Amino acid sequence: MSAPVVEPVSNVFETILVLDFGSQYSHLLTRRLREFNIYAEMLPCTQKISELNWKPKGVILSGGPYSVYAPDAPHVDKAVFDLGVPILGICYGMQELAWINGTEVSRGDKREYGEAQLSVVDHSSPLFKDVDHSKVWMSHGDKLYGLPDGFKIIATSENSPYCGISNEEKQIYGIQFHPEVTHSEKGKVLLKNFAVDICKATQNWSMKNFIDTEIQRIRTLVGPDAEVIGAVSGGVDSTVAAKLMTEAIGDRFHAILVDNGVLRKDEAKIVKETLTEGLGIQLTVIDAADEFLDKLAGVTDPEKKRKIIGNTFIHVFERCAAQIKPKNSDKEIEFLLQGTLYPDVIESISFKGPSQTIKTHHNVGGLLDNMKLKLIEPLRELFKDEVRELGEIMGIPHDLVWRHPFPGPGIAIRVLGEVTRSQVAIARAADHIYIEEIRKAGLYNQISQAFACLLPVKSVGVMGDQRTYEQVIALRAIETTDFMTADWFPFPHEFLKKVASRIVNEVEGVARVTYDITSKPPATVEWE
Ligand code: GLN
User: Fold this and answer.
1) Mean pLDDT throughout 272-282?
2) Which residue from 176, 15, 28 is spatially nearest to 95, judged by alpha carbons?
3) 65 touches ligand 1 (CB under 6 Å)
4) How high is the pLDDT of residue 274?
5) Engineering a disulfide at 288: which of 305, 316, 327, 456 sits with its beta carbon 3.0 to 4.6 angstroms away?
6) Residue 276 contacts by C-beta under 8 Å, 6 or more apart in sequence?
7) Was 284 annotated as part of a binding site?
């Protein structure tokens, strides 16, 4: 029997293909299109069209750092023009359209970076419906020195006579500016004009529709009797993935929570309750705290700590997985579930230069090699906010859906220096008070991530007329949209006062509390 064919998501939803020439904004194109319910997928610009196993409704060629005329510049597979679907070139993408049509592109007399005023010349062009006289954002040094055959000018700006060009017969469009960045006022309208009016893509991408298709896809992929295992952490991604799996194959999915001894207060208990009783997910909790903490004894180097935790995790997980008895006892577990999200996928396919090999995505290091499991990643097409929406629709508790991220190595990297049971207990208790107060003050959802760190220094204090000599807790809270850059959260003084007082009073071993007011960069979010 041949394997059942699993439809790619891009075949189920009408999809716009974004070919990435390496611009730092390329992923925003996918983002924007999905915001108005059009599914879009990004692939490297070197993608061979004949190797696509789906047909796009339209293609966008992104911007990029190269110059089309440079000897090592990346070029699009010309077969894209035989697809017979509309094409939009953005910045480098437009220059590429011109260049391969024999038009001169070279260095302009001045670079154009920043805002410009768009003037639409051809008001009948469907691309510019409702976008005339808006501000657009430019970032280029090269320009067109002519029009490719069959093209006309549809928009200009002060510095760019070829700010917008089109070949309406072939449905090919080019623009010099970047509609995907928010500085381009009507950028989203323009992208919608392209995708909806010109490509005629159906606006049906929604998490509600996604659930049904994804459950079907999982069932086809896994088949009627294979079994799947996956680790859960109490975070939104792994919980949503586990719930989706359970909806698709019921108790042929086995979730495993490894208690590594450096989880938050009562975490294993709470996850067990929420997932088992609340969500009906079949879960095994394995208490491996001693194994992790024994291995961490005497280790102070942050990288070593991370490595020990990662390796021990694989060990424990594999041991636990081996004990799980598949329902069909003659079968072995065949698949490993992973909550990989789209940004990780983008990161791994992102086009970094024609000579460089494209980075392959890293999964939980080593697990697959040792276990001979096939990987299943139901969230690999989704952005974080889409996963959250999915979680809400599937009835995952609101607080879990909006939980701050928590690192895999847990409290071990929030206890600076050596990780001992007593140090973990102090950090955990302080963190619990801090988060509890943040929730009480109604600030949790304004903060992207907050936690307490235990510093390996002692400081003098006075309590009940007695000299104390105890450790220091540092509090961290940041605001960020992408975790690439972050700023510290401006708590009211009263709030900090209350938290500091509670921690020193309630947590034995702490004499002093400080608040971390460093942004990222130069600091990172976590201390280790
Ligand atoms: N590198 C090209 C230029 O400077 C394209 C830039 C871009 O796509 N943003 O014109």
Assistant:
1) 96
2) 176
3) yes
4) 96
5) 316
6) 282, 283
7) no
